[in-house]
Amino acid sequence: MGDIIAALRLELGADQVLTGAEIGTRYRGDMSGTGTTLPLALIRPRAVAEIATALRLANEAGIAMVPQGGLTGLAGGANPGAGAIALSLERWSGVEEVDAQAGTMTVRAGTPLETAQEAAASAGFLLPLDLGSRGSAQVGGNVATNAGGNRVIRYGMARALVLGLEVVLADGTVLTNLNKMLKNNAGFDLKQLFIGSEGTLGIITRIVFRLRPLPRSTSTAFCAAPDYPSILELLRRAEGELGGPSAFEVMWPDFYRFVTAHPTTKSQPLPPDHGLYVLIEHQGNDAAADPERFETFLGGALEDGLIADAVIARNEKEVQDFWRVREGLALDTLPHLVNFDVSLPMGRIDDFAAACRQKLLARWPAGPESHAAFFGHIGDSNLHICVSVPYRAGEGMHDVDELVYATVRDFEGSVSAEHGIGTLKRDYLGHSRSPAEIAVMRRLKAALDPRGILNPGKVI
Amino acid sequence: MGDIIAALRLELGADQVLTGAEIGTRYRGDMSGTGTTLPLALIRPRAVAEIATALRLANEAGIAMVPQGGLTGLAGGANPGAGAIALSLERWSGVEEVDAQAGTMTVRAGTPLETAQEAAASAGFLLPLDLGSRGSAQVGGNVATNAGGNRVIRYGMARALVLGLEVVLADGTVLTNLNKMLKNNAGFDLKQLFIGSEGTLGIITRIVFRLRPLPRSTSTAFCAAPDYPSILELLRRAEGELGGPSAFEVMWPDFYRFVTAHPTTKSQPLPPDHGLYVLIEHQGNDAAADPERFETFLGGALEDGLIADAVIARNEKEVQDFWRVREGLALDTLPHLVNFDVSLPMGRIDDFAAACRQKLLARWPAGPESHAAFFGHIGDSNLHICVSVPYRAGEGMHDVDELVYATVRDFEGSVSAEHGIGTLKRDYLGHSRSPAEIAVMRRLKAALDPRGILNPGKVI
User: Fold this and answer.
1) Are A379 and A320 in a shared domain?
2) B154 touches chain A (CB under 8 A)
3) Residues A280, A260: one domain?
4) pLDDT at B1 over 90
């Protein structure tokens, strides 16, 4: 162990290699709060060549290397195990280029998402990737986890936004393909392997993002719908008539009532007695005509009974109010809250929510201490669930996990929509992927990281 | 050799295994016309289990298996080598499901693209994948080659349209993940490996496509632009003001003059003395308002000098006329025509065309027998080049290849935008991918197909 530290200090410089008390406690893990151990060492390289050197040394020594970005993950993917070296990308930061002709930007992995968004915007472009932790999440982690977020329905997951990638492999080989071309079928598209594999196959160092035009209008409405079939029809219509919403966020009444009754939320856009709620956002390119089209769309939906009521945001404050309801931060005040991020076939999401709620109630009967709140990016088949129940002796989060993930399996859903597998969902990967698939994942891992040094114990 | 044929006949039934003169000459290869040898045998399975059995047997025997779809490829990717067995997917055909709630369709690999498009349309959806050979190309081949086509600028390559995949591996393992969910981060996204790897890592048997709403309006214009910077600005504006064109097809004057002067074309939308030409198509969702918005967009571009002239198609016949010019079939009449499909950084395409033209002229001076025509899906960075020159003794297509691909390398482009590598471009893969990348491709090939039986000699 001492050898690798000494070797890293020699090659990278002593100031880049921290150990023991020099390592801040935040490097123990991500926002899931499940990281418990400090790494053997923390390195914070300032160049790709340094990252390559560090990996080569770790690979030779057979020492685990755990990449860390903004540590905003929710699946334990960046938690270092005991004896592992944490490799923070935080000093390998910055926007290298915005290419206005190609409509691309090239960004270092350690760049905070919001910094990249702002650089794109100041060049007149939209970097469509967006999520709540934009201020601290880093683009390398976003791509390594194939991050989703609020606008996937319009622009796709992180994967859909990446044109080129530079990755350092376990043995220190630097794989550079900073492609800016939309069409490129020259050989296997290797970057796809590294997107969404959570740092287990290589460490992403540079990203070429495809940029989009900045939207010229944003319309936002908060609607109430009588039932789930109406929600599905409303979505279909929004896709046909508006060319697709940029957000379509559904909230079940248990979510809506709890959040809007809580003093931190401060607004209740519609009465709490409706069947379902949906926040619809449409970003368009005709500032003059779009608001009227949006209103016409909602008027038609109201007339046909797909929605029972709707309010359109008249100013930025109301937009923020609507989103604050949807963000549901009030739920964070609940004791030992368990958050789920699953996906399900579109047609079955309401049935899933009902089945899941029923099972939870059967085990932890209704009462002031029992909460299960359902909401999500339904246009992407993505449901979030917040559960807070009064555990009896010997019970814990694991029991809620077992119950919810078993229901996901029964409904042929995915145990991870956008947060990844990390360590927290590893035991449930088999609920959504077959043994044959998991065997192929292991074959790929062995092919690219034969000594198993890259983020070991994560995903598979 | 006889053993494998006997084993296949035993397992699949004798009628499914053709040899010698029973094999039609078309199974020698794809539309590149470079396939010269009949396969050892041709099998045409009717079920995934049969495909799995055939692969298991071939793998045990170490016999090459070459998947064949509609044989419309242009890179020799489906040409069987001597001693290989051709596996035609043509009997494994049909649309299994259109799921209107999920907005997906599940299709067998041997289904012609046009059949799938029609099934989607009759359920009220658009399957956005579209290309000239839609009538005979099969969806399995489309996905295996990550096909592009005319509407990539709006909907992405085949990869962007695939949500789920079933693949048979070299050893006969069936890898089924018929995912319909837009967000699914449960483990490595294995399907990405098989998309675009041209049947070298597995044989695709089923595909889940993401469907889109049918467009409600289509506007088409043929425009002339003074120069390439104006074209780039026009594209940027179309993306901002129209929310993106559905086709943006640029033609250089050498292309336009030859094609519109040829008797088979029968129309010349604009005079032949402009700097560049572009066919712009916009598909929208507001049948009432879109035509006027399109006209306003063109009016603004005309006023600002980005275009010098434009005609808007007033009826379906004119739409067809415009597209017939763009398709440039007149070029097929030229002797020993060499077609290129390359991509280049957006900002450099015109410079590339000039450099390439100059090099061709330097070697084969201008004259009635020398033609080089440039056109392409410029919004996707994709340029096509048609070259017909009078070879001297000892010269041939190879010399044109060398010249063009060397120029692509100099401009940091890709030797294949949408047609793939197959056999024809294999020698040039290193022009666009690094030795480190090609080494990783070989590692993946060895991990998934250790005996090297799947479409050997293709891509890498």
Assistant:
1) no
2) no
3) yes
4) no
